Every structure is written in C-alpha cells, then in structure tokens.
Amino acid sequence: MSQWSQVQQLEIKFLEQVDQFYDDNFPMEIRHLLAQWIESQDWEAASNNEAMATILLQNLLIQVDEQLDRVSQEKNLLLIHNLKRTRKLLQGKYHGNPMHIAVIISNCLREERRILAAASMPVQGPLEKSLQNSVVSERQRNVEHKVSAIKNSAQMTDQDVKYLEDLQEEFDFRYKTIQSLEQSDKNSALIKQEMLALQAMLNTLDFKRKEVLCKIGRVIHEIDMLMSNMLTEELLDWKRRQQIACIGGPLHGGLDQLQNCFTLLAESLFQVRRQLEKLDELLTRLTYDGDPIPVQRPQLLEKANFLLYNLFRNSFVVERQPCMPTHPQRPMVLKTLIQFTVKLRLLIKLPELNYQIRVKATIDKNVSTVSNRRFILCGTHMKAMNMDESANGSLSVEFRHLQPKEMKSSAGSKGNEGPHMVTEELHSISFETQVCLYGLTINLETSSLPVVMISNVSQLPNAWASIIWYNLSTNDPQNLSFFNNPPAAALSQLLEVLSWQFSSYVGRGLNSEQLNMLAEKLTGQQVNYNDYQLSWAKFCKEHLPGKSFTFWVWLEAILDLIKKHILPLWIDGYIMGFVSKEKERILLKDKTPGTFLLRFSESNLGGITFTWVDQLENGDVTFHSVEPYNKGRLSALPFADILRDYKVIMADNVPENPLKYLYPDIPKDKAFGKHYSCQPNEVSKPSDGGGKGYVPSVFIPISKILNDSTDPHSPSDLLPMSPSVYAVLREHLSPTVIETAV
C-alpha cells in the first residue's frame, strides 16, 4: 500500500493535520494524482543537489502533462483547468530554484510519515502535545489580530495628520491675509471677528496636535507591548519547534505568519516616523506657547527608533539549520572539508532591502568553546539577501558552498581526545550584516544552533546523538558548554524522539510495545517511564550490560540496516523488531507450528533474525532462532527471498521451509509475496543454462537441526550452509549423503 493510500485511511483529526501543509507551494491535487511516482523519487537527496532537483522538476512537469492528456480525453473540465493552473504555478515558482520544490515535497512526505506514526500510537507523545498546545494557537491568532489592528490605527492616524496639515494651511492663509492688511483695516469689526475665528482655529490646531501625538503614542505603546510579550513568545516558540523538527519532530511552520507580523509592524513604525517628520515640518511653520510637538515628538521618535532596532534584530533568523547535502536527515553535524548548506531569512520583507543586505558567515565568533580545535570557513562566506531565490518571495540568503576546515594549530590536539570528546564539542556558525534604511543603520547578528564537527564519517552516529540530546534537553540556542555537565532527559520524551528517528528516517515510527522494549533496554528494568529521568551516559557512553557497544550505537546500526536492506518490510509493519527473547517465546508458544516473527538482534550490531515455533512428537513446544543476518549477508540476498527460500534439514533428512505464518497468523507469502525478487530458486541442470561446463548456482539459506536435542537451539545450531555448496549438493547427491556431509 502506498504511503498516500495509508494517509487517506486516517481519522479526520489526522487528515486535518495533513491538510495544513499542502498549499499552492505544492497542491494536494498533484500529490494525489502522482502518488506512486512521487513516493518513488529521492526528494531528500535532490533538496541538496541542484542538478538532481532540476531533473526531478522536469520529470514532475512531464508527469503533470501526462495527467493533462488523460483528463483531456475524459473531458473533465474542472480538473483540466486546475492542472493547467498548477503546471503554470510549478514552472513559474521553481524554474529558477528547483531545489526548493524538492525541499517542499521531501518535507511533505516526511510529515506524512510522522502523522502515520502518530496515528499508530495509542496516545500523542508529550513533546508533540506541547507543540500543539491550544493556548499557543490562540496566542498566534491574537498576535495576527493585534498586528492588523495596529496597522489600521497607523493608517487612520495618517488621515488625522493629513487633516491637521490641511487645517494648518488654512490657518496660515487666513492669518497671513490679515497680516497683509493696513493697520486701519485691522480695527474693523469684520477683522476682529476674523481674529476670533483664527483663535478658535488655533485652539483646534492645538487640540488636533495633541490628539495626533496621543494616537501616535498609543500605536507605539501597542507595538511595544506586542513585541515585549506575545510576538517574542511566538518567535521563541517557532525556534523551539525548529529545534524539535531538526531531530525528527513535527514539521515546523509559522515562519511566513511571523514574517507577515514583523513586516506589518515595521511598516507601521516607519509610518509613525513619517508622521513625526510631518509634525516637525508643521512645527517649523507654526509654533506657539504650550505647543505639544517640541515636547513629545523627540521622545516618540526615540521610542519608535528603539522599537525598529529591536524588531530588526529579532527578525534575522536561521530558517534552515546547517546541514550536509550528503546527510539531509542529520542536520547540525558537519564534516571537515565537506560542503554544507544553511539558509537565513529577514522577517521584515521590504522591497527597498532586496539585494541591499550582505550577510557574512563565520565560525565560533566571540564565543568560547570547550574544544581545543579551531576552524575556519572556506568557500563563499558572504552573500546578498534577495527575494528571488525563495519560492514564497521571502527576503533570504542560502549559503550552499561553505566548508569547515580545521586550523593546523589545533590538529595536534586531536590525538589526546577520547572517542566521545569530539562528538560532544559544540561549535557555532555566526552570521552578521548591516541594514541601512531611511536614515537608520542597524547591525544584525544571529547564530545557528550548536553544531558538532567531525573529521571522519564513523563519528557521525555519536555526533547525531549529541545533537538529539542537546535539542531535546534545552531551548538555549548557544550553550556551547552543555556537555560539560549534560542534564538528564525525561525518558518519555526521549522515547518519543527515538520513534521520530524511525518515522523520519525509515518511514515508520515505533508503537508502544516497541518503545516499552527500548525503555527496558535503557533502564535494565520495567519502569513507569513517564517519571523516569535518563542520563546522557546511559544513552550514549556506557556499554549495554555484557555487550561491547552502547545503546545508541546498537539502535543506529538497526536504523542503517532498515534503510539499506529491509525498508519495504519495515514500512509494511511486518517486522516486530524490538522484542526480547523472553517476550518472543511468550508470543509464539500458543501459536500454530511454523509461526514466526522477525526481531532485531540484541547481541549483534545491525542484525535481524527470525524465530519460529515448532512442536515435538511428545507435544512439547520448541523454538528455533536463526543466526542474525547482517548487512553483509543481506547484500547478497534480499531478506524477503531468504524468508521464502529458507530451508532446514530436519530429523528425516528432508529439507523443508519451516516458516509458514508471520505472527500472529498471516500466511508468509501473503505478507512478503510482493517483495520477492523472482520466482523461487530452482537449481538448473548444466545443459539448461550452465556455461562452459559449470553448474549454475543459486543462493538458498539452509540450516540443520539435530534430532537428539529437545532443548532450544543456540544460534550456532542454525548457522547456514554456503548456498552455492548446498545447490551443488542438492543437484548431485542424495539427502542421506548430504546429511553425512553436513
């Protein structure tokens, strides 16, 4: 079943979540019509490879054209209209930046997987629940409402200033007219009446000046209150959501809404400055005793400028954290001399700033790290922000060719560092720029979340563990000494993040039973993990009891195994995976003989095994587990084919496949049939296909079960015979001779 088919079967509350991230950037209609094709492409790799993204965009447009041809024959006018509009939209938006559509589609697919994983969970995880807090949503709506009200107030004040300007011009004209009269004419009754009218106008002018200043002050105060409270909280919440998204959590949205709020507030403040400048012009033409403009205007202007400075400083954000194109799902882990990408955005989107802001990237600027190593950035480290590279027209800049290089002066210290020291060192990528606009000069700085620098790809798993632990445990964006004394993490939240690793990396998250097994693995006991705090050492530094590796190394090896060798079976949900030997036997003991389940090895790194239940002649139940298959063996033979062709030599010397039903009672071929690579292997005779006198060979996994033991067999009992050897033996020798040879 395709991922999109699974999505369509979700409950309405999950479908509403899906609806939120499909828009004109990537219409759901295209997702629906091209579901299988879209899911068969590697959008993640294309999101960091421009040539690949260009080809995928071209192919996407070709697919849309083919759909257009189909619906044209069906004369579906509405669908024809929508597809033509969508094709034009896709080509127009992404022709100059094909990587952006790859990022969007990759994020959509990843978010679908996360929602599917969440739907399979009995309850929503604590982290995700906190990110979807109804109070937060209510605050978002309040911010947008208040920003709109502030913008309207500033525009209404514009009209008041215009009225004040017109009133003063009329006063100037009438006053100068009287001043131009002869002295004798000024004593007439008509003139005295005019003077009284002018005095009344002056009183009105004074009232209107005070009223306009009061309204301007109110707008400034409302902006100040909004920035100090709700808008700041909104920005901090977005940054926290970004942290969680970086470690596999829900896709973080809301930046476009924040940009709209920041831009409207900036426009309102610049409008206030223009209003104050107009009042200054009016002041130069007319002033009087008790005039409020010279008293209040300087204070209001100073406050407006102060708010603009703060607004700009908060608006400079890292939209997409540093990430190597070769490892798109491991952001913030950077390898020396390997390019990485990072994207920044200015949330104040003003046309006057397009291509006017140059951003400079540096590493470890003005910060002290716990590392003796020092780095510099090679490549293009200065670029201009613009509105042309982003499909949504945001004012942004993306660095695509930066490389961290270790300085020679620090190279000598590497040999003195332990295996975990390098991956626990945190560094910071900093960015600075300057905005010059309407007489203001504002220096802006921001930094990425802490990154880990590695010099060898073998350090990647532990480096990624550090990134997970940091972003799970703190919302401090720059605590580079975090691992001097890393805090414990709530086990319930950590398990949720571990499930995200599976949903984002291999397309299917973990259910409650699988998470319970991991909790026992981490703690060594059955615990109520809602209240349990786990140490960093337990997670990543201390070896598992009786093993030569840590919990995280064991789990990372399983992720790698799934991704490279058994991904379709994992996505279909046929691999139970995380189940202990004890629990495995409890599950199988009452099942039909030949029932089996698949689980990951607890003793071997990156291994998967299967265990089946059998019944002896005396009625006793016995269990058999095959030696775990690792990536080396799975590279030679697909796992589904192994399950299909697996044989054991039983007591009667007749090879047979003992695997009949996948737990609990699914016929094996029904579960795995679509994943078989070919028809069941048969050994051909030399004359049928053997070239140059050779006997063709096939891979057949086979084990031998001794007939003099009723005890559960150790893995060594079920070591497979060489497939090619067995193929030849089966062709030319009798079962009795094969038994003797074995």
From TrEMBL:
PROSITE patterns in UniProt: SH2
GO BP annotations, alphabetical order: cell surface receptor signaling pathway via JAK-STAT; defense response to virus; negative regulation of developmental process; regulation of apoptotic process; type I interferon-mediated signaling pathway; type II interferon-mediated signaling pathway
A GO CC annotation given for this chain: nucleoplasm
Signal sequence residues: none
Domain called SH2: residue spans: 570-672
PANTHER family documented for this protein: SIGNAL TRANSDUCER AND ACTIVATOR OF TRANSCRIPTION
Protein name: Signal transducer and activator of transcription
